[in-house]
Amino acid sequence: MTEDDFLKDLFSKLPSGDAQITVPNGDDSAAFTPTPGMQTLIACDQLIEGRHYLAETPAEICGAKLLKRNLSDIAAMGGIPRYAVLSCNVNSACSEQWLKDFHHGLLKCGEEFSVHLIGGDLASSPGPNAFSLTITGESAKPIQRCGAEDGDLLFSTGEFGLSFPSEHHLHFTPRVEEGKFLSSYAKAMIDVTDGLLLDSQRLLKASANTLDLTFLTQEIPARNFLAKDASLKESFCDGEDYELIFAVGPKRVKELIERWPFSTKLSKIGEFKKGTGKILDDEHILLNFINKGFDHFQS
């Protein structure tokens, strides 16, 4: 099968686009009309063999994970996901069937979250298989990382730690619906991919105010796997949790808890106070694990 044959077969499996797509896949570029009154969100994430998945991981699961990683970014902005373009760089050992299954997994996930694949690129080179997906979304008022203030509370969705041994990193549900709901409550938000400690530090640094963050360590929801709860360090540093952490003003906390409509766990895990940029535990001891989380330039 040639590249053109593969793409022709792929295009035949794509669902029909919505009315806002003015130039569909198959041209040099796709085009769509933005929704009036909405800001367009755009994010990009990669999936690399040996880094984000093992060679024996089923292709459909890999395809779904790539899209879900991007969906988590849109969720962190309180946005609605819309369109995606995909770039695939595979080696000669990657079979045509594996690549078809990869796309099938991605398209099935896209159908679940109403995301249309509207273009992409195929290439072949030595080295590990690598994929990159760019997603667009929309929001009337995107939630940024920079809004935390003195007195705000830090909340989280879900659980943390042991993502790799439990395979949560492959089978997670991106918090898209939760993110849309939280757009009415969150003053700052981020999705946890590189570890709870590292990503909460990013929230802290992004704030326009100089703050400290005190974690309520007994309240951090640890993931359980094989009858074992994640340790505090695993909960803080393992990463690939794909949960949302967000700052909420103290006057909105009661309403948020009472109106939370999801089965997803909602936890109050910390508090922002005026300070010097430190992260502390509830005994005011500086949290400074040697491995704070995942860093692509250090790991």
UniProtKB/TrEMBL annotation:
Q: Where does Mg(2+) 4 bind?
A: 28, 73
Entry GO MF terms: ATP binding; magnesium ion binding; thiamine-phosphate kinase activity
Q: Which residues bind Mg(2+) 1?
A: 45, 121
- The entry marks the following residues as binding substrate, namely 52, 240, 294
Pathway listed: Cofactor biosynthesis; thiamine diphosphate biosynthesis; thiamine diphosphate from thiamine phosphate: step 1/1
SUPFAM superfamilies xrefs: PurM C-terminal domain-like (SSF56042), PurM N-terminal domain-like (SSF55326)
Give residue ranges for domain PurM-like N-terminal. Answer: 26-137
- What family is this? Belongs to the thiamine-monophosphate kinase family.
**What is this protein for, i.e. what is its function?**
Catalyzes the ATP-dependent phosphorylation of thiamine-monophosphate (TMP) to form thiamine-pyrophosphate (TPP), the active form of vitamin B1.
Q: What is this protein called?
A: Thiamine-monophosphate kinase
Q: Which organism is it from?
A: Lentisphaera araneosa HTCC2155
Q: What is the lineage of its organism?
A: Bacteria, Pseudomonadati, Lentisphaerota, Lentisphaeria, Lentisphaerales
